[in-house]
Structures are given as structure tokens and as C-alpha cells.
Amino acid sequence: MKSKRLTALLIMLQLAAVVYGQEVSGLVSADNGEPLIGASVLEKGTTNGTITDFDGRFQLTLQGDNPILV
Predict the structure, then answer these.
(1) Four-residue CA torsion sign, 64, 46, 53, 37
(2) What residues are paired with 69 via a beta bridge?
(3) Which of 8, 29, 60, 61 is the most buried (most CB within 10 A)?
(4) What pTM did the predictor assign?
């Protein structure tokens, strides 16, 4: 019985992490395909953001319910 409760708790925690801690990654590039170094990537309406690396790549954990990246 105790193991079933623990399993249920772990499943709920994983679901909460998926819903509230959605992680996205991507590549920001110019029209000619060149990666943009140091470009800002922000979650619209928040102060949550990051900048791209030397390859134009970014990774960001989203906070909102319906996030939009700008």
C-alpha cells in the first residue's frame, strides 16, 4: 500500500514538472541562415529569458500557461 502511494506521488510530481516547467530549445538565425550570437529570447509578458550561444542556440524553461517566445 505504501509503495502505491509513493508511486502515485511521484507520478503527480512528474506531471506538475511537465505542466509548469516546460523546457524549450531552438536556434535563432538570420535570413541568410547564419546563426545569431547573443540574440535575446524572451517569454512574452515576463522577465524570463535567455540569450543565444555562439551557435545561435538557446534553452529556456517556460513559466506561463500559454507561453509565446519573442
Answers:
(1) positive
(2) 43
(3) 60
(4) 0.67
